[in-house]
Sequence to fold (180 residues):
Amino acid sequence: MNPNAKVPVIHDPDGLGGPRTIFESGAILMYLAEKSGKFLPTAPAARYETLQWLMVQMTGLGPMSGQLVHFVRFAPPGNNYAKSRYATQVRRVYETLDQRLAANAFLAGAEYTIADMATFPWTRMAEMLLGEDAKNYPNVLRWNAAIAERPAVVRALKQVDDVRARTTSSTRPKPRRLTA
Fold:
């Protein structure tokens, strides 16, 4: 269903304009927000504020964090440059997020939006990604705690825990901090 053969992808038989298949996280969030009329403002200034912060996750936080995880956990030894580069990039994005959240309750301003939804899954791993450095981003940590208390997020994280409980092997190594 995704020409790039990866997830996520959704198929909406009652889609906008007819049956619709949507792939890529950001596109899915935008589609669902537009269909529901929630979490993506319609006023141009607020809409683009949200989309800018969604793109920070799509083009910065997600890819840089993913590369950091790869080079620390899965790449063979001898990748110190890559580990250092991606750790530096992750810290830079966290600095940007922390500065933004110092002056705003949520990434796009006063309201919870798809930008927050897309960013939270990565930033909730701050301590794993950054180790002790996570404490250098108090506004991100405060925001993480607030997002984690939202009822829909509590339900979603419970489902994540349930899936992990069913699929985690006792022989699988325990996750370790990823700081380079």
Notes: Residues 66 and 86 are 9 Å apart (CA to CA).
